[in-house]
């Protein structure tokens, strides 16, 4: 027996909604939209990187919590219906995560989190164009795009195409020109200063 949507859902209603299929969804104009299942490489990279970042935050007493596959409420203005993205990795403020631990509500980014990481798949335009605009509008301080299989367009990852990590950082409400990392380039992140990772070490998490 599958649940059906008879009217547009709010973000909170969507988090509590379940159609019984076991599939993952995002919210588009109040309507749940099913997502494609990630491949094994994509999933391994997300899980391993999220675990690494969580441990890094604890060991270095950074004020963040890394969690994978969490819903992020997007910015909407009346009369728009609510929207969300299910981000691959969400970097929550530790204080906000602790607040959610005292609540029975679903764990999600109800307010803009400091950072979001997306791992690119075949629908690469979503990550490099659509989500970039959405996360900038939302005020995400750092947006990291991991293109481990060089799916992206040449204008984003260069020619010849090669695995690339792209980092956008917010300044006065706008993303600065992208920082691009490949091979043995060491990652330069505002949220994770001095993190001892190269681009290749992150790509290797998918193998």
UniProtKB/TrEMBL annotation:
<feature type="domain" description="Putative restriction endonuclease">
    <location>
        <begin position="11"/>
        <end position="198"/>
    </location>
</feature>
<dbReference type="InterPro" id="IPR012296">
    <property type="entry name" value="Nuclease_put_TT1808"/>
</dbReference>
<dbReference type="InterPro" id="IPR008538">
    <property type="entry name" value="Uma2"/>
</dbReference>
<protein>
    <recommendedName>
        <fullName>Putative restriction endonuclease domain-containing protein</fullName>
    </recommendedName>
</protein>
<dbReference type="InterPro" id="IPR011335">
    <property type="entry name" value="Restrct_endonuc-II-like"/>
</dbReference>
<dbReference type="Pfam" id="PF05685">
    <property type="entry name" value="Uma2"/>
</dbReference>
